[in-house]
Amino acid sequence: MSKAKANGIEIAYNIDGSGEPLILIGGYTMVKESWAPQVAELSKRFRVISFDNRGVGESTVPAQPFTVADMAQDVVGLMDALEIGAAHVFGVSLGGLIAQVLALDHPTRVKKVGLGCTTHGGRQAVQPEKEVMGGLAAASDPKIPREKGFRMRVPIVFSKQFIEKEPGKIEEFLQAALRHWPTPQGAAGQMGALSVFNVKKRLGEIRCPVLVITGSEDKMMPPENSKLLAEGIAGAKLHIIEGAGHSFCQERPEEVNRVLAEFFGG
Predict the structure, then answer these.
(1) Which of 10, 124, 183, 192 shows its CA 20 to 30 Å from the CA of 168?
(2) Packing angle of the helix pair 167-179, 146-157 (nearest 10 deg)
(3) What residue numbers bound the domain in which 228 lies?
(4) What is the pTM of this model?
(5) pLDDT digit string (tens) for 50-102?
């Protein structure tokens, strides 16, 4: 792990492999270690940069509120620090919001962009079911022990099929989550940033090649949002991973890695 000063903060990052740069942008409270299934395979073909967004992991936790645009500028700052002119970008969930802003506001820095289980934001985005929202709110209660909070999230972020077939992997994810649990301040900062995001009216401005990818059983970010993105971005490709949930990168790494390698390497 290394750190770079970028956009007024410190960003913790890893670099694996060689070739064209591919930047992986994590979702809400997701840390760079969560990309292990992708890094192991994609680093065979690309120079893979994984990092901790501001607010989580080993990167700076700002004292003041911040926006998705600030987080996109963090990525640009990291690219500058690493002397990367332009790169492929893949972001999931909150990371997909950041990736959209990069493609919109910094088009010369993005070669191709992948948008995973994400949304254009705003009132026209498809919201999760009320039961899902209630479950997430309950799991985020600071009075609840960390492990219990994680287990309450399991049926929301993973598909029923994966939970039933891979209980051992669920436990591995639990231990990893407990090692990298965010501070309340960092989690709140990221939630504040994503809660006001809305670029629906600007989707037509994205000019680089776009891949939209999601799991068909995503309860946290209904797959209808990915369909809306693909419809709003000229030439965008849509790939749906059947049977996978919000954490499709962990559930179906072989398919995800193959699709990403074909898109970014094609």
Answers:
(1) 183
(2) 130
(3) 2-128+183-265
(4) 0.95
(5) 999 999 999 999 999 999 999 999 999 999 999 999 999 999 999 999 999 99
Residue 157 lies in a domain: no
Give how many domains the chain has, as a whole number: 1
Look at the alpha carbons of 6, 210, 24, 161 in this order and tell me if their dihedral is positive or negative.
Answer: positive
